[in-house]
Amino acid sequence: MPKRFVVAASEFPDLPRFPASFELAESLTAAAQHLHGTGTPDATMNAAVELAVRLLPGADHAGIAEIQRGGRLRTLAWTDETVRFAAEPRHGGQGPHPDWERLWATPVVRTADSDADGGGNLLSGLGLRSALSLRLRADRRRLTVLTAYGRKPQAFDEDATRIGRLFTAHVSLALDSATVREQLTEAMRTRDLIGQATGILMERMDIDAAGAFESLVKASQRENVKLRDLARRIVDANTGPGGRGVNER
Q1: CA distance linking residue 173 with residue 76, whole number of Å
Q2: Are 202 and 208 in contact (CB under 8 A)?
């Protein structure tokens, strides 16, 4: 039996497991603060699955998966190995849970009891009787889905679904924000890297900045290498032993 995932209370001191008397707005605010405090999309998704277990009534496990048209998927975040098995029933990430296909047309799908009709399916075999799947992102090619799993049948009622939809709205916003931050950070790093490579070529080839950048672009096209990767190669070669680099003329 896989070890049950438990989040230490010290990780989320402001967010006790959701009791009926606890104000939903206060709970979601605390969750949003944790989500927006993450630095990368991966960290945001890891925080989201942990928070889902603590926030959603009936949740024992949670995971986030990306599903492509045609059924191929990859698991992006999970609370434990049980979730990975539940999300990837066949080798190579093929064949998501059939209920997930409905998420192309609806934002929420609930599995009330995996043992219904005699069980024998993947969720039932893992001891997961209930599932609440919530769409985070969708376009024509792929879905991103957060799924909470319960070990009891009919674990997710209308209240849990409502909380889940509010929670995933916060997750989506935090994920978009983290993605933009990561892209901007990468853009700044790329700009600096290309600037360094251009400076190296200016000195080595005794040309101006425009000529150095044009030389870099031509070399990128000739070698079919991304400009960023070629710039990194030049900078790394210049700072390596001998510092001579490569001739990009």
Answers
A1: 17
A2: yes
- Asked if 54 and 94 touch (Cβ cutoff 8 Å), the reply is no
DSSP state for residue 242 in the 8-state scheme: T
Which CB contacts under 8 angstroms, 24+ apart, belong to 106-111? Answer: 106/135, 107/134, 107/135, 107/165, 108/132, 108/133, 108/134, 108/135, 108/161, 108/164, 108/165, 109/133, 110/156, 110/161
DSSP string, 127-162: T--EEEEEEEEE-SSEEEEEEEEESSTT---HHHHH
Kindly report the backbone phi and psi dihedral angles of residue 141, in degrees, each rounded to the nearest multiple of 5, phi listed first: -105, -30
* Identity of residue 248: E
pLDDT of residue 249: 39
Averaged pLDDT, 60-88: 85
How does pLDDT run across 34-56, given as a tens digit for each residue? Answer: 999 998 999 999 999 999 999 99
Per-residue pLDDT band for 88 (boundaries 50, 70, 90) equals low
Structure tokens at 76: 């992006």
Strand partners, 18: none
